[in-house]
Amino acid sequence: MPCANSSTKNDGFRLLVVDDVHPVLFDKLRLIPSLECVYRPDLSPSEVFAQLFAFDGLLMRSKIRLDAECLQGLPRLKLIARAGAGLDNIEQSAAMAQGITLLHAGEGNRTAVAEHVVGMLLGLLNRIPQSDAQVRTGLWDRVGNRGRQLRGMTAGIIGYGNNGSATAALLAHLGCRVLAYDKYVHGFSTPAISACALEPLCQQADIISLHVPLTSETRAWIDADFLQHCLRKPILVNASRGEVVVLADAVSALESGQLGGACLDVLPVEDPLKWDLSLMNRLFALPNVVLSPHTAGWSIESYQAISEVLSNKISDFFRILEG
After folding, report:
1. What is the CATH number of the domain that holds 163?
2. Are residues 193 and 246 located together in one domain of the fold?
3. For 84-117, how does the pLDDT look when each residue is reduced to its tens digit (9 = 90+)?
């Protein structure tokens, strides 16, 4: 893929791109005269760190984690752009203290996340994974695979940012009563979506869908104590970050019937070689669980949209930088 302004001049701003991005990203970056873009998605994490000291900016997805110690060794770095939603693999307070601008493209995949969440819910409610597997073996069980309708259910959205608000809107359009809670966002109620405190949301929701970043507040937030306050045996949906949910507690709640089901696009550990197999086998044995491999925000269309959003934000950064 061609890079934007890939000359070797030393008086410009050097941006290292270390993950695959859609080519549309470079269409706009190429228009920034002062920008030298080096596209190296082939670099390993150790190779990224070995070269990063010579760059003013970094564009990445999830290849590396930048903590305070690492950032202190990169005094030249002025910009970190993440081609995705959220910045949880960057120690944000340390970056901001160093004067580093942080950008992400949460707007780019909100439609993909919303559609994926609804797809998982419809699959679970209508027993589509089980039905498909049974029909392929010649089993034709109409009664056993009778589904439930999404319309008329109460959906509780926790986190009303880009993904949460898009998911809320789609569920409302499909006939759900939608309650939404966000600790940091207020005044967003509409005729179709009601801002709600957390406790009544947990008491009333048939579906609880998580759309929060991974922070010190949200890590291991959805635990046994939290789930005890969910009164209607809801379906738990997680399309945010796996570490937000204590998986062992969620599995126990599913086994006991305290949760009516789960749609999990993310897991606390996403490397199968590092799984706790006893826990994962309990999860896999549950018939009321639908799983996907962290693909909710990774549609063909969102792959392009993320790059479009990020290129616009980087262009805005340069407009401000160059006054």
Report:
1. 3.40.50.720
2. yes
3. 988 989 999 999 999 999 999 999 999 999 999 9
Q: With pLDDT > 90 as the criterion, what percentage of the chain qualifies?
A: 94
69 tagged catalytic: no
Instruction: Give the predicted TM-score (pTM) of the model.
Output: 0.92
- Smallest CA-to-CA distance from 265 within 88, 106, 82, 112 is with 112
**What is the C-alpha to C-alpha distance for residues 160 and 110, in angstroms, rounded to an integer?**
11
Sequence length of the chain is 323
159 touches 210 (CB < 8 A): yes
Q: What residues make up the domain containing 135?
A: 110-291
Of 30, 219, 282, 294, the active-site residue reads: 294
Q: Are 158 and 103 in contact (CB under 8 A)?
A: no
The tens digit of pLDDT for each residue in 121-132 reads 999 999 999 999
Q: How many domains does the chain have?
A: 2
Report which residue type is found at 97: A
Quick check: is 270 catalytic? Answer: yes
Q: Which of 270, 301, 319, 322 is catalytic?
A: 270
Instruction: Sort residue 296 into left (φ over 0), alpha (ψ -120 to 50) or beta.
Output: alpha
Q: Which of 14, 22, 110, 241 is catalytic?
A: 241
